[in-house]
Amino acid sequence: MQRRTFIKVGVAGTLCALSGRAWALMYYPRPSGKKWAVLYGTWCGSSRDAAVWISEGLEGIADVFDIREKPDLKGYDHLVLGSSIRNYRIHPLLKEYIEENRIWLKGKVRGVWAVCHNLGKPVGPSQVTRYIDGQFLKVLDLPRIPSRVFLGRITKALLEDEVRPLMEHLEDCDYLKRSDCLAFGREILYSIR
Fold first, then answer.
1. What is the widest separation between alpha-carbon atoms in the chain?
2. CATH value at residue 91
3. Are residues 105 and 142 in the same domain?
4. pTM higher than 0.70, yes or no?
5. Same domain, yes or no, for 155 and 186?
6. How many C-beta neighbours within 10 Å does residue 160 have?
């Protein structure tokens, strides 16, 4: 590299870094003064993906936990809870966790979501009432907070042996949209600002 080109590149890089436009740093999460966590329950991975994408919508400031890890979230300031739906119910481990910890959870939950297949039909008010109001807000005795029901997916190869015959008539499909989850994460974040 010629000396003149080297100096030009060096000056341009320095100016770029000083101007706040350092492209390589653009994708790092922004620091937050509060600790955020997204907790999910899943059988086949739909809620895991939704949780990660919701965290991205929260500008990457949230840690993501599977309920099977049995995380201790008491040190977190803000929580977002979600679950896949099976037989019209949230994941039993998440339900148990909510019931056992509802007193301290009540002041920290900032958003809830559910992922259901819904036979591929659009989500309507009955799904919101059944999954959000009936299984999250009612149990936690929460006021209306950001909430969403997402269409999920079916991957028969990931189903447990006892469940596979019940879903044999359904085709593998994927209705979960990253853009919807990102938008929901942003909605939660902006609702507390």
1. 71
2. 3.40.50.360
3. yes
4. yes
5. yes
6. 8
Q: How far apart are CA 95 and CA 61, in angstroms?
A: 25
Here the tokens at position 94 are 């998440």
For 14, the token pair is: 């320095």
Give the C-alpha separation, 103 to 1, whole Å.
Answer: 65
Residue 89 — φ and ψ, nearest 5°?
Answer: -135, 155
Number of domains in the chain: 2
**Rounded Cα–Cα distance for residues 54 and 33 (Å):** 19
Q: Which range marks the domain in which residue 56 is found?
A: 31-191
Task: Note the pLDDT tens digit of each residue in 73-94.
Answer: 999 999 999 999 888 889 999 9
- Residues with Cβ within 8 Å of 160's Cβ and at least 6 positions away in sequence, in order, are 43
For CA atoms 47, 52, 57, 61, the dihedral sign is positive
Examine the domain organization and report whether 37 and 25 are in the same domain: no
Same domain, yes or no: 12 and 84: no
Report pLDDT for 145: 93
Helix or strand holding residue 173 (H, E): strand 173-174
Confidence band for 122, pLDDT divided at 50, 70 and 90 = confident
- 66 DSSP β-pair partners: 40
Do residues 17 and 100 share a domain?
Answer: no
